[in-house]
Amino acid sequence: MQPLTLVFGLLLIALIRVWRLRPFPQAAAWWLLAASGTLWMASAPITANALVGRLETTHQHYSANCELISDRSSVVVPGASIDAYVDSDSPYEILGRDSLTRTLRAAALDSGKQMFYVLGGGQTSRKLSDLMAAVLTEQGIARDRIVLESISRSTIENAQQLAALLEPAQTPPIALVTSSLHANRATATFSGLGFTVCPITVDPLYSVSAGWIGFLPHIDALFKSTQAWREGLAIALYRVRGYIT
Question: What does pTM read for this prediction?
Fold first, then answer.
Protein backbone atom coordinates (compact mmCIF):
# COMPACT_ATOMS: atom_id res chain seq x y z
CA MET A 1 0.00 0.00 0.00
CA GLN A 2 1.50 3.28 -1.16
CA PRO A 3 0.38 6.77 -0.05
CA LEU A 4 -0.60 7.49 -3.64
CA THR A 5 -2.82 4.40 -3.70
CA LEU A 6 -4.50 5.62 -0.51
CA VAL A 7 -5.07 9.07 -1.99
CA PHE A 8 -6.55 7.54 -5.13
CA GLY A 9 -8.83 5.29 -3.07
CA LEU A 10 -10.10 8.22 -0.99
CA LEU A 11 -10.71 10.25 -4.14
CA LEU A 12 -12.68 7.36 -5.62
CA ILE A 13 -14.83 7.08 -2.48
CA ALA A 14 -15.46 10.83 -2.59
CA LEU A 15 -16.44 10.58 -6.24
CA ILE A 16 -18.96 7.81 -5.53
CA ARG A 17 -20.51 9.76 -2.66
CA VAL A 18 -20.73 12.95 -4.71
CA TRP A 19 -22.24 11.07 -7.63
CA ARG A 20 -25.06 9.84 -5.39
CA LEU A 21 -25.92 13.32 -4.13
CA ARG A 22 -28.96 14.93 -5.67
CA PRO A 23 -29.13 17.48 -7.07
CA PHE A 24 -25.52 17.70 -8.25
CA PRO A 25 -24.24 19.22 -11.50
CA GLN A 26 -23.54 16.29 -13.80
CA ALA A 27 -20.68 18.14 -15.49
CA ALA A 28 -18.84 18.44 -12.17
CA ALA A 29 -19.16 14.71 -11.64
CA TRP A 30 -17.69 14.02 -15.06
CA TRP A 31 -14.77 16.35 -14.32
CA LEU A 32 -14.11 14.48 -11.07
CA LEU A 33 -14.24 11.21 -12.97
CA ALA A 34 -11.80 12.54 -15.58
CA ALA A 35 -9.41 13.73 -12.86
CA SER A 36 -9.53 10.35 -11.13
CA GLY A 37 -8.94 8.50 -14.40
CA THR A 38 -6.01 10.73 -15.31
CA LEU A 39 -4.44 10.23 -11.90
CA TRP A 40 -4.84 6.47 -12.18
CA MET A 41 -3.42 6.28 -15.72
CA ALA A 42 -0.43 8.47 -14.85
CA SER A 43 0.40 6.56 -11.67
CA ALA A 44 -0.27 2.97 -12.77
CA PRO A 45 2.97 1.11 -13.53
CA ILE A 46 1.44 -0.68 -16.51
CA THR A 47 0.74 2.59 -18.35
CA ALA A 48 3.86 4.41 -17.14
CA ASN A 49 6.11 1.59 -18.35
CA ALA A 50 4.35 1.54 -21.70
CA LEU A 51 5.04 5.27 -22.13
CA VAL A 52 8.72 5.20 -21.20
CA GLY A 53 9.29 1.92 -23.03
CA ARG A 54 8.11 3.45 -26.29
CA LEU A 55 10.36 6.50 -25.92
CA GLU A 56 13.40 4.49 -24.81
CA THR A 57 13.40 2.17 -27.82
CA THR A 58 12.86 4.62 -30.69
CA HIS A 59 16.59 5.43 -30.98
CA GLN A 60 17.53 1.87 -31.88
CA HIS A 61 17.64 2.49 -35.64
CA TYR A 62 20.87 4.39 -34.99
CA SER A 63 22.54 1.36 -33.39
CA ALA A 64 24.18 0.35 -36.67
CA ASN A 65 26.45 3.38 -36.26
CA CYS A 66 27.98 1.73 -33.21
CA GLU A 67 29.78 -0.72 -35.50
CA LEU A 68 31.75 2.28 -36.80
CA ILE A 69 33.00 3.34 -33.37
CA SER A 70 36.78 3.09 -32.89
CA ASP A 71 39.56 4.54 -30.75
CA ARG A 72 39.41 7.63 -32.95
CA SER A 73 35.81 8.26 -31.98
CA SER A 74 35.07 11.04 -29.53
CA VAL A 75 32.96 10.40 -26.44
CA VAL A 76 30.32 13.11 -26.04
CA VAL A 77 28.56 13.61 -22.71
CA PRO A 78 25.75 16.18 -22.51
CA GLY A 79 24.93 17.27 -18.98
CA ALA A 80 21.48 17.09 -17.42
CA SER A 81 20.49 18.10 -13.89
CA ILE A 82 22.50 19.71 -11.13
CA ASP A 83 21.81 20.76 -7.55
CA ALA A 84 23.83 23.94 -7.62
CA TYR A 85 22.96 24.93 -4.06
CA VAL A 86 23.76 21.71 -2.21
CA ASP A 87 26.11 22.30 0.74
CA SER A 88 29.01 20.32 -0.64
CA ASP A 89 32.03 20.65 -2.90
CA SER A 90 31.87 17.08 -4.14
CA PRO A 91 30.75 16.68 -7.77
CA TYR A 92 29.26 13.32 -6.80
CA GLU A 93 26.80 15.13 -4.53
CA ILE A 94 26.21 18.23 -6.65
CA LEU A 95 25.52 16.47 -9.94
CA GLY A 96 22.04 15.07 -10.46
CA ARG A 97 21.65 11.32 -10.87
CA ASP A 98 21.26 11.60 -14.65
CA SER A 99 24.40 13.73 -15.07
CA LEU A 100 26.47 11.50 -12.79
CA THR A 101 25.41 8.19 -14.36
CA ARG A 102 26.16 9.52 -17.84
CA THR A 103 29.61 10.66 -16.74
CA LEU A 104 30.49 7.36 -15.07
CA ARG A 105 29.29 5.41 -18.12
CA ALA A 106 31.43 7.62 -20.36
CA ALA A 107 34.48 6.95 -18.19
CA ALA A 108 33.91 3.20 -18.61
CA LEU A 109 34.33 3.63 -22.39
CA ASP A 110 37.86 4.95 -22.06
CA SER A 111 40.57 3.11 -23.98
CA GLY A 112 43.25 5.70 -23.26
CA LYS A 113 42.99 7.35 -26.68
CA GLN A 114 39.61 9.03 -27.09
CA MET A 115 38.82 12.67 -26.54
CA PHE A 116 35.94 13.42 -24.19
CA TYR A 117 33.61 16.33 -24.93
CA VAL A 118 31.64 17.38 -21.87
CA LEU A 119 28.73 19.69 -22.65
CA GLY A 120 26.67 21.86 -20.36
CA GLY A 121 26.70 25.15 -18.50
CA GLY A 122 24.25 26.56 -16.02
CA GLN A 123 23.06 29.76 -14.45
CA THR A 124 25.30 29.65 -11.38
CA SER A 125 29.02 29.66 -10.76
CA ARG A 126 28.94 25.85 -10.66
CA LYS A 127 29.03 24.58 -14.22
CA LEU A 128 27.88 21.15 -15.28
CA SER A 129 30.87 20.58 -17.52
CA ASP A 130 33.35 21.46 -14.76
CA LEU A 131 31.76 19.04 -12.31
CA MET A 132 31.47 16.24 -14.85
CA ALA A 133 35.09 16.75 -15.88
CA ALA A 134 36.11 16.44 -12.22
CA VAL A 135 34.41 13.05 -12.07
CA LEU A 136 36.12 11.94 -15.29
CA THR A 137 39.56 12.88 -13.96
CA GLU A 138 38.85 11.03 -10.72
CA GLN A 139 38.03 8.00 -12.87
CA GLY A 140 41.53 8.16 -14.36
CA ILE A 141 41.02 10.14 -17.58
CA ALA A 142 43.78 12.64 -18.28
CA ARG A 143 42.65 16.27 -18.21
CA ASP A 144 44.27 16.97 -21.59
CA ARG A 145 41.81 14.53 -23.19
CA ILE A 146 38.76 16.39 -21.85
CA VAL A 147 37.25 19.32 -23.73
CA LEU A 148 34.77 21.45 -21.80
CA GLU A 149 31.84 23.43 -23.17
CA SER A 150 30.07 25.51 -20.51
CA ILE A 151 27.61 27.67 -22.47
CA SER A 152 24.84 25.34 -23.64
CA ARG A 153 21.67 24.83 -21.60
CA SER A 154 19.63 22.55 -23.86
CA THR A 155 20.06 19.60 -26.20
CA ILE A 156 20.04 21.73 -29.35
CA GLU A 157 22.60 24.08 -27.81
CA ASN A 158 24.71 21.06 -26.83
CA ALA A 159 24.76 19.96 -30.47
CA GLN A 160 25.42 23.45 -31.82
CA GLN A 161 28.32 24.02 -29.44
CA LEU A 162 29.82 20.64 -30.31
CA ALA A 163 29.58 21.50 -34.00
CA ALA A 164 31.59 24.64 -33.24
CA LEU A 165 34.31 22.47 -31.68
CA LEU A 166 34.21 19.60 -34.19
CA GLU A 167 33.52 19.74 -37.92
CA PRO A 168 30.72 17.16 -38.32
CA ALA A 169 31.62 16.27 -41.92
CA GLN A 170 35.22 15.52 -40.94
CA THR A 171 34.50 13.87 -37.59
CA PRO A 172 34.47 10.09 -37.13
CA PRO A 173 31.33 8.64 -35.50
CA ILE A 174 30.81 9.91 -31.97
CA ALA A 175 29.69 7.93 -28.93
CA LEU A 176 26.87 9.98 -27.42
CA VAL A 177 26.32 9.03 -23.78
CA THR A 178 22.92 10.02 -22.45
CA SER A 179 19.90 8.76 -20.57
CA SER A 180 17.72 6.16 -22.27
CA LEU A 181 14.66 8.43 -22.25
CA HIS A 182 16.65 11.29 -23.77
CA ALA A 183 18.50 9.22 -26.36
CA ASN A 184 16.01 9.54 -29.21
CA ARG A 185 15.84 13.34 -29.17
CA ALA A 186 19.55 13.76 -28.47
CA THR A 187 20.64 11.36 -31.23
CA ALA A 188 18.28 12.92 -33.77
CA THR A 189 19.42 16.44 -32.82
CA PHE A 190 23.13 15.70 -33.16
CA SER A 191 22.51 13.73 -36.36
CA GLY A 192 20.57 16.68 -37.75
CA LEU A 193 23.73 18.78 -37.54
CA GLY A 194 25.72 16.21 -39.51
CA PHE A 195 27.21 13.97 -36.83
CA THR A 196 27.22 10.19 -37.18
CA VAL A 197 26.00 9.13 -33.76
CA CYS A 198 26.21 5.93 -31.77
CA PRO A 199 23.88 6.30 -28.75
CA ILE A 200 25.22 4.86 -25.50
CA THR A 201 22.36 4.81 -23.02
CA VAL A 202 22.19 4.70 -19.24
CA ASP A 203 19.58 4.78 -16.49
CA PRO A 204 16.58 3.18 -18.26
CA LEU A 205 13.21 3.77 -16.63
CA TYR A 206 11.31 0.90 -18.25
CA SER A 207 10.58 -2.20 -16.22
CA VAL A 208 8.08 -5.05 -16.52
CA SER A 209 4.84 -4.55 -14.61
CA ALA A 210 4.18 -7.69 -12.58
CA GLY A 211 0.60 -8.97 -12.83
CA TRP A 212 -2.34 -7.13 -11.30
CA ILE A 213 -0.03 -5.02 -9.13
CA GLY A 214 0.83 -3.10 -12.28
CA PHE A 215 -2.66 -1.57 -12.17
CA LEU A 216 -2.23 -0.10 -8.66
CA PRO A 217 -1.06 3.55 -8.37
CA HIS A 218 2.58 3.94 -7.35
CA ILE A 219 4.69 7.06 -6.89
CA ASP A 220 7.55 5.67 -9.01
CA ALA A 221 5.14 5.18 -11.89
CA LEU A 222 3.92 8.77 -11.54
CA PHE A 223 7.55 9.92 -11.78
CA LYS A 224 8.03 7.84 -14.95
CA SER A 225 4.87 9.24 -16.52
CA THR A 226 5.97 12.77 -15.68
CA GLN A 227 9.37 12.23 -17.29
CA ALA A 228 7.78 10.63 -20.36
CA TRP A 229 5.30 13.51 -20.67
CA ARG A 230 8.06 16.11 -20.50
CA GLU A 231 10.23 14.26 -23.01
CA GLY A 232 7.29 13.76 -25.35
CA LEU A 233 6.51 17.48 -25.29
CA ALA A 234 10.19 18.29 -25.90
CA ILE A 235 10.28 15.96 -28.92
CA ALA A 236 7.14 17.61 -30.32
CA LEU A 237 8.66 21.07 -29.80
CA TYR A 238 11.92 20.06 -31.50
CA ARG A 239 9.97 18.77 -34.48
CA VAL A 240 7.93 21.97 -34.76
CA ARG A 241 11.12 24.05 -34.66
CA GLY A 242 12.80 21.82 -37.24
CA TYR A 243 15.63 20.57 -35.00
CA ILE A 244 14.63 16.95 -35.66
CA THR A 245 12.41 15.16 -38.16
Answer: 0.86
